[in-house]
Amino acid sequence: MLPDKCSLMEKGKQCVNPPEFIVSVAVDKDEFMVGVTCTRHKQIVSGKIQILQGKGKIPHGKVSFSSLKAVGTDCIHGDSNDFIQLDSTNKN
Ligand SMILES: [Zn+2]
């Protein structure tokens, strides 16, 4: 099941926008869903993913954004429990 909100936290508050894109990381032939984002936070989320990859918290691979409406969710690996919580501040 997908979260019903964007994965980004801004100033300690969860973004309440509905998710518009699935954020996934492609590693070899697998694709791991790491979160969801609204259009407004797409760029921030993209930067955050790279930071988390640098820290080894999520797999290294090509980050891609797929429109939620266009994606058949059952072909993507992942569990909503594995989704990362992204904070727009840099304290993490
Ligand atoms: Zn958002």
Architecture overview:
The chain has 92 residues and is of the alpha+beta class. The protein has one domain (8-87). 14% of the residues lie in helices and 30% in strands. The protein contains one helix and six strands; from the N terminus they run E-E-E-E-H-E-E. A three-stranded mixed β-sheet has the order 2-1-6, with no helix packed on it. The longest helix is centred in the middle third of the chain and has 13 residues, at 42-54. The mean pLDDT is 84. The chain binds zinc ion. Residues 6, 8, 15, 17, 37-38, 40-41 line the site of zinc ion. Zinc ion binds at residues 6, 8, 15, 17, 37-38, 40-41.
Shape: globular
Q: Let me know the largest β-sheet.
A: 3 strands, mixed
SS element count, helices: 1
Ligand identities: zinc ion
Strand fraction band?
A: 25-35%
Order of helices and strands: EEEEHEE
Average pLDDT number: 84
Strand runs, count: 6
Could you list the spans in which at least 5 consecutive residues all have pLDDT below 50?
Answer: none
| Span between termini | 27 Å
Q: Roughly how many Å is the radius of gyration?
A: 12 Å
> Which structural class do the helices and strands define?
alpha+beta
